[in-house]
């Protein structure tokens, strides 16, 4: 499927659903009012750049070519410059800057290269767009699988999502991940059986000593039913124009709509 074509039509996505649940007012600013973000967090830019490098890595591996660690670091330097150099819109967290990101990314990719292995496993697809329909929902839910693998012996399929994190991912976070639940729902609509499916987070962890860890999870039929029900309720809220600011959220500090939120909160005030 072509992701740009899917995005050109009305849809929901993992990110838009998550944003509505986090702060429906921010959803309004982004997807209804189409406001330009006042800033973008350095973590988001960093994660996008790492994703781009891993996409190149796995596409090369898919045709039998392993990118050596030094070449991977060189690729990172080029990619990071493309994503972050000279971009005034980036909201750098205290202690972070372009050079710090360059160093951190190189360390993470070296850690990834040391622990990475694909043994007796086929790469089914890399950055593969998907679209799914839910009974009672009149628009599709779209997204992208970062990586899909299949064990050659058992036939077991693993859907992989790449994550950059400040600390290790607890198993509970993986088990409760909305994104993983939507991936499982998408897999089900594309004919995967649940006893043949795993979900995995490949985490590049930005600790003092960079780490690469993999966290597995699964979803039951009940959990798939529940996430479909949740998505329908999100869409109902959007259709009803229910916009509620999540005041005091830890995400407020990195939000790109601070001024828009402040203006909205003061609208109609004449004191």
TrEMBL record:
<feature type="domain" description="PD-(D/E)XK endonuclease-like">
    <location>
        <begin position="11"/>
        <end position="262"/>
    </location>
</feature>
<protein>
    <recommendedName>
        <fullName>PD-(D/E)XK endonuclease-like domain-containing protein</fullName>
    </recommendedName>
</protein>
<dbReference type="Pfam" id="PF12705">
    <property type="entry name" value="PDDEXK_1"/>
</dbReference>
<dbReference type="InterPro" id="IPR011604">
    <property type="entry name" value="PDDEXK-like_dom_sf"/>
</dbReference>
<dbReference type="InterPro" id="IPR038726">
    <property type="entry name" value="PDDEXK_AddAB-type"/>
</dbReference>
């Amino acid at each position: 499927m072509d992701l740009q074509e899917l995005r050109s039509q009305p849809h929901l996505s993992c990110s838009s659903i998550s944003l509505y649940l986090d702060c429906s007012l921010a959803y309004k600013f982004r997807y209804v009012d189409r406001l330009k973000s006042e800033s973008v967090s350095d973590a988001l830019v960093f994660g996008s750049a790492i994703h781009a490098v891993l996409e190149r890595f796995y596409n090369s591996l898919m045709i039998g070519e392993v990118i050596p660690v030094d070449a991977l670091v060189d690729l990172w330097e080029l990619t990071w410059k493309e994503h972050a150099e000279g971009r005034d819109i980036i909201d750098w967290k205290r202690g972070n800057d372009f050079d710090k990101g360059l160093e951190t990314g190189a360390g993470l990719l070296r850690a990834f290269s040391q622990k990475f292995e694909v043994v007796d496993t086929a790469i089914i697809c890399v950055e593969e767009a998907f679209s799914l329909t839910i009974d009672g929902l009149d628009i599709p839910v779209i997204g992208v699988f970062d990586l899909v693998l299949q064990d050659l012996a058992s036939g077991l399929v693993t859907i992989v999502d790449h994550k950059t994190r400040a600390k290790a991912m607890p198993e509970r976070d993986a088990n409760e991940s909305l994104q993983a639940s939507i991936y499982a729902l998408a897999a089900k609509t594309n004919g995967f059986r649940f006893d043949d499916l795993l979900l995995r987070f490949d985490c590049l962890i930005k600790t003092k000593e960079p780490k690469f860890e993999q966290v597995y999870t699964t979803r039951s039929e009940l959990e798939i039913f529940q996430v479909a029900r949740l998505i329908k309720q999100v869409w109902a809220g959007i259709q009803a124009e229910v916009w509620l600011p999540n005041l005091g959220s830890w995400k407020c500090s990195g939000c790109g709509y601070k001024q828009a939120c402040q203006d909205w909160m003061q609208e109609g005030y004449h004191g």
